[in-house]
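tool_call: predict_structure(chain=1)
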Amino acid sequence: MKVNKQAQVKGKSQKWKDVRSKRCRPSIKSSDLNSSPVMVRVVKEHQVSAKKKPSVKRLKNKAKTVSDHNKSKPSESGVRKTNPETNGSSMFTLDEEGEDLQQLKEYSQIIQRNGLQTTGETWDVKFGRLEGEALHHCAQRDDRQNHAVLVMQQDQTLCFRGKCFLTCLYGRVEVMGFTIEEGQKSYPVYSPASHCPLTIRALETSHFHRNDRTEASQILQKYLPPASRKKLLKKITLASSVILLEPMETPLTRFLSSFTHLSELFSPPANELMSAVLDTPLNGLGVIPLTSTVEGLKMSQSYRDALNTAVSACRGDMDGSAVILVCGIKNVGKSTFIRVLINTLLNHTSSVDYLEGDLGQTEFTPAGCLSMLTVREPLLGPPFSHQNTPEHMIYYGDVSCEADMDRYLESLKSLWRRRPKSRETPFIINTMGWVKGFGLQLLVDLIRVLPVSHVIQLSHGSTTQCPALTPEFLRTAHGCQTHPPAQTAMDECTESHGPPKSYSHLDVQAEFRGVARQGTAKYQRSNEQRELSLLAYLSQLQSPEPGPVRPLHSLTPYQVPHAAVALGVIHCEVVPSHMFYAVNASLVALCCLTEKVTSKGGPVLLPQAPVCPCVGFGVLRGVDMARGLYFLLTPVDPSVLRKVNCLLLGAISLPSCIFTTQPDLEGETPYVTTDYSFDLTGAGKLRVFKGLARPSHAGTQ
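tool_result:
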């Protein structure tokens, strides 16, 4: 997914500005979400049980009377014209009004004279989770245009599994901390089984001056037939929000769904099947609502307080920009917290800078990368849904840095030096879940080396998983490269950016279910999530036009001469004579060495791992020894490829499904063999740990 730069709004501060934008997108004409065998079986069971006994009862309480100060006065013409640029639609006029709008005017007059009248057809507003019968009353689907419109009252929520495009037609809603208002473009939202389900929440609106039902009728004319419009208009009040949900079909989703083991990725996992609502107008669009028995994102009070403090710091008049480092043990919710923080900041500023320090669970790139980039679009899904090429990236080549911590630190320092000194954008730093022994020392180094203004530390329960990284603790703590008093190993960095003498430490208690435990359900293991991110990156090789998925072996590769690029293996030692065997049919990083690559007639091999810029990745699908050529598949633009003079092989391997799922092949499957034994001497990788001593030997445990 590419990030487009938002247009700046005049009259706002350059540091902190309103960044609402509009987007015109062609209509989606994709088919309904394909039902898997499991979902078909569950739907049938649900329909049988629904016939026996209804599970949801209708509320009997009457709706509250609308107060006088909330009544809207009709304009002279009776119609308030809409913005011609809103979601790419044109203005509505009185000539386009139908009979339903005339009836609605009479209904509105009754409201103004006598208060809200309830009839047998009027559904009483129920706040909280939208589920069961409520979804049939407040959602209508247009099968012809293949989309659905949903009316939500203030503080109502929709928790779901699936994927779709979301457009706010009226009012405003919030998803993962990001506020979507009417007039903005459509946003893709992803709620796969690999992560916590997303929740859409209707927010309070302040448009008390508007004629709510008249404007809503004009908006809905474009999206629903008259009968469906009449049903929804009775549910709309001044506090309502109306959203449009459309099916999403992209090269990413098509590529992922082409693998059989990922066919259930956007369906509820096994432990949520009984909580799935399977007979609503939203299901055929790829959205499966969940009942209140399934929790969405759970925020503790300390979680909310830390978000508010961080946002306030970014909005305040600090000397320079706020630099926020987020740390904590594994599986405590660091990545989710950072997504919510970035989304919340994007409500106020046009961009947020991000430094990736977690090799195993990267946010915007395949695993094994350290990167720095500017985020301009909200993150409304897990990492595989927003893979992007950073402005600056270094390939470390492993999911852990314990084998070479010096190269890890030097890589992060190199990335920080590339940040402009005068930049005032909020800066977020993600860290690894390694918080003991040398992992704790690395955190101490990062806080000292980088001009951190806030440290947000996530933990859980009453036990101490990691010492509180307060300024007092750092006065006596030892790092891998730094020691007290705070002497940095990068004087030129700290002098130029002026790190503060102290920083704010915020403790966040994570209280969600399963905290500090890796998920055991399908797609929830860390290695499976790394595989999803890599597959998402490779999906960029697919055509953006709708059509069947093209397997990788059917794509035409680039031909790269051996003498034009250097070749290196950075995660283990390989003898030169076996180098081509190691890199064949592997994922390689496309890097740019500062020095020129010179060849004496053969391939150029690197003796050690370099710290150099990386511009992307490719699949080395073949080596032609006779002609001296590498055959390379990559989505990187040819203009950028001209700068590449180094191919690096790391421990990040291609998913096995890339090799085993190759349609239209005759004979043996390329690159795949079953005649192999890891019991043979030298059959596995030989790992080398550079300068790593046991914590007990170093006296730092």
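agent: The chain has a mean pLDDT of 80. Proceeding to next step.
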